[in-house]
Amino acid sequence: MEVSLITDPAQKEAITLTVMHKLPLWFSPPEDIDRKAKIHRDYPFFAVLDGTEPAAFAAVKIHNPYTADIYNIGVLEPYQHRGLGHQLVQAILDWCRQEGFVFLTVKTLDESANYPPYDSTRAFYLREGFLPLELFPTFWDADNPCLFLARTVK
Fold first, then answer.
1. Is the pTM for the entire model greater than 0.85?
2. I need a surface site. Which of 2, 86, 109, 144 has the fewest CB within 10 A?
3. Domains in the chain, ordered, with CATH?
């Protein structure tokens, strides 16, 4: 399985809906997933397919000419710990280099929320070379403190 850049807006939305709705420990509520699926239609979008079925995806938000952000990334549980997340990040980094970005950022749930599903998420980002920059306690809401991480593209 390999990472593909998806350009068709309808396919981006369908992949998002399939993956995010199957990951309720990481993505909720359903109406937020549906809203994000619409947003992803307009973002650079990478996916890993198992045959014709989605296994993983990442949507990238452009902040400015220097910075791109992993807006959402999801790997279905049967495919986790098989290197797909790493492949997605590497594909995003390659794309960022081609596009001239300097930084790649990501936001995730801070450890102060004490929510075990995100322990491995934070560890994954650290392994991928992201470093914590700042904690935003109320970016999402008081129960979901946001950890902002970044890495250089080079």
1. yes
2. 2
3. 3-152 (3.40.630.30)
